[in-house]
Specification:
The chain has helices at about 50-60, 75-85, 90-105, 120-135, 175-185, 205-220; strands spanning about 10-20, 20-30, 35-40, 65-70, 115-120, 140-145, 160-165, 190-195. The protein has six helices and eight strands; from the N terminus they run βββαβααβαββαβα. It has an eight-stranded mixed beta sheet, sandwiched between helices. It is an alpha/beta fold. The protein has one domain (about 10-225): Alpha/Beta hydrolase fold, catalytic domain (Rossmann fold, 3-Layer(aba) Sandwich).
Length: about 230
């Protein structure tokens, strides 16, 4: 990936309690933010993922806040690096993403702003399950190189506008996204194929195109779904 990663401005280190663990995150919210996008990483990635941090930077420049968080603790990541099992525990990832959503709505910075999800790899499935659980709280969902098929029948309850971004040469994941798209209940749902890109969007210009698509999607849909305080249980 030959994309320049600039430092995220005004990033605040946060800890999100979930049961008996603390989930680490980096929260950046620009002045007069349009909304906040929560990032759901997957497949052995973390909040330090250079690809997701690049996308977060593009969203910040468009006026959105970003919460990049670890869905697994450092100890769990060490286990997962060997077993590769926790990254496919989609229910666990979704429950932790929901907790992060709840936590964010409890903070002054996130209480009145519309929220969106950006999911990568298995994190995309977690984001879709969480969006199905919070139909009025989540304004839009974007998946990059995701496995939305792993969300299963929860796709039938996803009503937030959903964009699936897939590499044109991601031959194993592309048909899985096509199948998932047919199940998503949202009136506004679409798949965008980035030509010649493989799963990690490492080709020249591929990640930039994916980030622009994500930014345009959130610009289009998040402002339309402002949440009134007390509208949904969070």
């Amino acid at each position: 990936m030959n994309t320049t990663i600039r430092p995220m401005p005004a990033a605040q280190s946060v800890q999100i309690p979930w049961q008996d663990v603390q989930l680490n995150g980096d929260l950046s919210v620009p002045r007069d933010a349009r909304g906040i996008v929560l990032f759901a990483h997957g497949s052995g990635s973390s909040r330090h993922s250079p690809r997701n941090r690049y996308v977060a930077q593009v969203l910040l420049e468009a006026g959105f806040g970003a919460l990049l968080m670890d869905l697994l603790t450092s100890e769990e990541e060490e286990i997962d690096n060997v077993t590769r099992q926790l990254r496919f525990d989609i229910d666990l990832l979704a429950q932790r993403l929901l907790r992060a959503t709840d936590w964010l709505k409890e903070q002054a910075t996130g209480r009145s702003l519309p929220l969106g999800y950006f999911g990568a790899s298995t994190g995309a499935a977690a984001a879709l399950i969480a969006a199905a659980e919070r139909p009025r709280a989540i304004g839009a969902v974007v998946s990059r190189g995701g496995r939305p098929d792993l969300a299963g029948r929860a796709l039938l309850s996803v009503h937030a506008p959903t964009l699936l971004i897939v590499g044109g040469h991601d031959f194993s994941v592309l048909p899985l996204n096509e199948q998932a798209l047919e199940m998503i209940a949202a009136t506004e749902s679409r798949m965008e194929i980035v030509p010649n890109a493989t799963h990690l969007f490492e080709e020249a210009g591929a990640l930039e195109q994916a980030a622009r698509l994500a930014s345009d999607w959130f610009l289009r849909f998040l402002p339309r779904r402002h949440i009134k305080e007390g509208e949904d249980r969070l």
